[in-house]
């Protein structure tokens, strides 16, 4: 990646910490990293309990806070998705990453899965729906789930929680990007195991191929990762 490509990738990054072991100091350090010599990241993504702290740490930067909801197991519970999304927004989140009930989807209960997305949509200014493609596996299933999420109001479809099943893959990403293209609106987020600059560049190139040059922007494309920022800054020597 050249310097311009690295700077672009940083601006598309959802800087993430979802280990469950965070404390105040860790959240403060995460937010301090979000403003880089190459510009700000797209968002900082944390658990709901850390939204208020992250929002305070990011005050004045213009960097939004994203919170996960229905995470990580993807419960078939629209009320939970609505409640957690509403609480995160009340604490200052501008984006919500909600987990699709992928187990329900796999059993054919698409109505409940879509209801979870719609419930989060009712509260979230920007909604990303995590499909957990490593669990869905089958290309047709991934395509259908992406279409269902987009039809229920998702602003982005996202590959993975990063917990348990295999994370992002180029194969799943291509299917999801094609679903976005077919839907005519929406965005894509790669997350789960994206650790190197080369991997990040691969997803950017794939989106350019499927969606066409000029489509990629923070409003349409994100990469969710915890360690990738350090790799990108190392390329810059920053």
UniProtKB/TrEMBL annotation:
EC numbers: 4.1.2.4
Record carries keyword Transmembrane helix: no
InterPro entries registered for this protein in UniProt: Aldolase_TIM, DeoC, DeoC/FbaB/LacD_aldolase
One GO biological process term: carbohydrate catabolic process
Enzyme class label: lyase
SUPFAM superfamilies: Aldolase
GO molecular function, one term: deoxyribose-phosphate aldolase activity
Name of the protein this chain belongs to: Deoxyribose-phosphate aldolase
Record organism: uncultured Solirubrobacteraceae bacterium
């Amino acid at each position: 990646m050249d310097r311009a490509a690295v700077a672009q990738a940083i601006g598309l990054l959802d800087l993430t910490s979802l280990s469950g072991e965070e404390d105040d100091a860790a959240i403060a350090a995460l937010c301090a990293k979000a403003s880089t010599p190459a510009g700000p990241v797209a968002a900082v993504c944390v658990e709901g309990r850390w939204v208020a702290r992250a929002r305070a740490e990011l005050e004045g930067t213009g960097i939004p806070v994203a919170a996960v909801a229905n995470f990580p197991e993807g419960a078939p519970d629209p009320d939970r998705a609505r409640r957690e999304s509403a609480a995160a927004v009340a604490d200052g989140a501008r984006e919500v990453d909600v987990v699709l009930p992928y187990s329900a989807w796999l059993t054919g209960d698409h109505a409940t899965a879509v209801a979870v997305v719609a419930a989060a949509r009712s509260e979230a200014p920007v909604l990303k729906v995590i499909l957990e493609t490593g669990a869905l596996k089958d290309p047709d299933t991934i395509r259908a789930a992406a279409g269902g999420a987009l039809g229920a109001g998702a602003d982005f479809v996202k590959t993975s929680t990063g917990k348990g099943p295999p994370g992002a893959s180029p194969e799943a990403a291509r299917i999801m990007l094609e679903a976005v293209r077919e839907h005519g609106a929406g965005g894509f987020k790669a997350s789960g195991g994206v650790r190197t600059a080369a991997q990040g560049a691969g997803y950017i190139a794939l989106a350019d191929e499927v969606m066409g040059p000029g489509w990629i922007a923070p409003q349409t494309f994100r990469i969710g990762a915890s360690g990738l920022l350090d790799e990108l800054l190392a390329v810059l020597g920053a």
